[in-house]
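Pair request: fold both.
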Amino acid sequence: MKKFLKALAVLAAVAALGFGFASCSNGNDDGGSGSGALAAFTYTQSYGTETIYFYADNTWECIETKPAFNYTSTDYKGTYAITSGDFTNGKLDFTVVEHNGTKSGWEKVSLEIKDGVFYLQVWDTPARVDVNDPSDDKYVKQ
């Protein structure tokens, strides 16, 4: 009986170890909400936040959160390419390709990041992207 209990304990330990490894993430999950993001920038509004996550595959997404309404949604998605510098001080070509799940065709703009801050406003009607104007929404690096 003692041998059987010992074998059962070893088997349970091996199973627990296996489940532990299976539940770990490799850190490359770009499935939304900023998992695996290279950089994140947040614009704070009176009712919540918009956070833009930049990923290694040169895509980005904007997640809008309204805690008072228990609301979180992917607002915009697009592509980017860093043309100089980095996510603290640099320039990147920026496009918006999707709004609330609908494909769109906004123009490409050159976004400037200075000291971890950039200015951006996305308009639906007419479809346009405004950047680099301090009167636009201010996104701060997290």
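--- second member of the pair ---
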Amino acid sequence: MNLVIIGASGHWHLAQSAAALDPSVRVTSIAPGRPEEDVSALAAAFPEARVHAGWRAAIADDAPDCAVINPWFCDAAGISAACLARGLHVYSEKP
């Protein structure tokens, strides 16, 4: 299962734990929930993942199976809705 992590403001470490337990779970891309959000911790935690400047590019380009949504809490619902509309499974914090 390929994951995209959108935002670094929540509990993304749970996706990291899942990936550590099951080698079929891979974080393939990461992106900020908004341009000013710092995703450097995500980039360090998942050095093999592609870093996108924006989340729309990440869900359009990388064919993820599931989106881990944890941007600033005020952005979670809109990003989750866009991912669901694209047919992705969503794991969202504070939707």
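Observation on the second member. The two ends are 22 Å apart (CA to CA).
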